[in-house]
Amino acid sequence: MKTILITLLLFLSFFCHAQHTKVTSQRNLSKTVTLNVKNERISDILQTIGKAGSFYFSYDGMLFSQDKLVDLNIKGVQVRHVLDQLFNGQVEYIEDANYIILRHARNRLTIQQTLIENNEQEYMVSGFVVDTQTGNRLKQASVYEKQLLQSTLTDENGYFKIRFKGRQTGVILTASKENYHDSTLVFLADVNIQPAKYQDRNSNGNTIFSNAFSGNGIWRFLLSSRQRIQDLNISSFFAQTPFQASLTPGLSSHGSMSANIINKVSLNVMGGYTGGTNGIEIAGLFNLTKGDIKKVQFAGLFNIVGGSVKAIQIAGVYNNVKRNTAGIQVGGILNKADGNACGIQLGGLSNITREKVQGFQVAGMVNKAKAVSGVQLGGLFNKVADRLEGIQFAGLINYARRMDGLQISVLNMADSVSGVGIGLVNLYKNGFQKLNLYSNELVNTNIAYKTGTAKLYSLLIVGKNFSDTTSLLTFGLGFGHEFILNKNINIAAEGSIQSLSPDRFKTADILYRMQALVQVKVLSRVEVFAGPAYKYITALSDVASIHNYRKSFFRRRDDSTNHASASGLGWNFGVSLLL
After folding, report:
1. Is the distance from CB of 507 to CB of 470 less than 8 angstroms?
2. Is 273 in contact with 286 (CB distance < 8 Å)?
3. What is the C-alpha to C-alpha distance for residues 88 and 301, in angstroms, rounded to an integer?
4. For residue range 461-520, what is the model confidence (pLDDT) as tens digits?
5. What does DSSP assign to residue 406?
6. What is the rounded distance in angstroms from the CA atom of residue 138 to the CA atom of residue 142?
7. What's the Rg (C-alpha) of the chain?
8. For the chain, how far is it from start to end, CA to CA, in angstroms?
9. Which residues pair with 486 in a beta bridge?
10. What is the pLDDT of residues 300-310, one digit of tens each?
11. CA-CA distances (angstroms) from residue 34 to 14, 78, 99, 243?
12. Which residues lie closer than 8 Å to 204 by C-beta, 6 or more apart?
């Protein structure tokens, strides 16, 4: 079984990888550009740089004066340095996928150490975190050591004390706070070295994860206020370790740094809060993950991931991924992905993907996605907000704004359609709805409701034969296709199956019918039609059926059922109203 799961995961990984365009590994801020412009608006210069580097800028329109005119003459200069020259340190830049995000430059802080103690038992540093511009001491700032993976928060007076077990030759402390640039200092015994002397190898990291654990969700009650503050302060630093264990998010082998550590193996008795997993993570109740998950994640109740998932993810109730999923996602009630989903989503009740699905969405009730290139299978309802390029199969309703694939359901709907819908009713804005009033050789009064497109439409049929000798009732369904000859004439080929009964359906026979209709438009919304038909009838009873009234029509009996049957030619003529 293990081999099968691994093989399936590898297959899905290769499949998902093949669906995405390869991107260059070069960071956009490191790309070089050449420009020579005079009296150009800053907004136009940014657009030119983005076009040259095949990326986009994202910024608030109030961030700077977009109409300001500047001169710029550069050759082979990195985008980062061009932006420095344009904004003179007033704006900072963050990379996210194919975007460079511009935002107000953050404030700066520093660490002022007051005491260092170093002995055989422990190494201790205490001090204050201070705003470099105002000199104010900052409360609730995070102070942490990236190699020893220990941290603390400053108190109301901006004071901190952090201890490390055993004698240390020195530590490297980093101070972080929301809306401030990180500051890192090296402490050697009782000497501290200023930040300018030390280059933090993590300082250029641009990892951005959505703050999945802010707001008023249930997880707000699962994380302490210190953990939530630390989340806001330390957003882009991640370390890697082979193993962690937690009883609850606050009781972890990695302490308050657990959300900044990526583990190979993560075991959470009740629940845990980690930076990510590149291996296997198992929880009795829940997993909260700030970053990415790779390989396997299992929880008795729910998994919530702030990054992406490339794994087999299973939860008894609920999976929520803030970025993309690739692999297999199984939720007892709900699976949700805020990005793309590639692979298989199996939801007991529902699957919701905010972007594109490439693969399979299978839910007991409802599937939703922005776009689908694959299969949606929903017990009740499937919805694609944009484009369907695969198959929708629902027990009740399918909807796609643009349907370029196949829909199978009781009711199919789309704003525009180039694909095929198979259902009792197909409502398409660029399709048609027709009401046919017609007569044929068996039943002299019939109504057929046609919905769909010329490529394929469905028919719902009811009729009554008003006659002194044979008072037949009929109902049935069928499908048809129109061959368009010109704007006024087309030929329809239709097939249907109907129930025929002379006694209000106490008994009934089965009618199979194929017919060709020449349809001529006589008014803008009115057609007349006529044509030949071929029918095959099976009489289900010799006592009370159409066979009892037209025995001369039935020439033979079916050897397997001993029921009479008949076939022959017929005709149709009538009028069609375009609704």
Report:
1. no
2. no
3. 50
4. 999 988 766 678 899 999 999 999 999 999 999 999 999 887 777 777 889 999 999 999
5. E
6. 10
7. 35
8. 56
9. none
10. 999 999 999 99
11. 38, 9, 20, 48
12. none
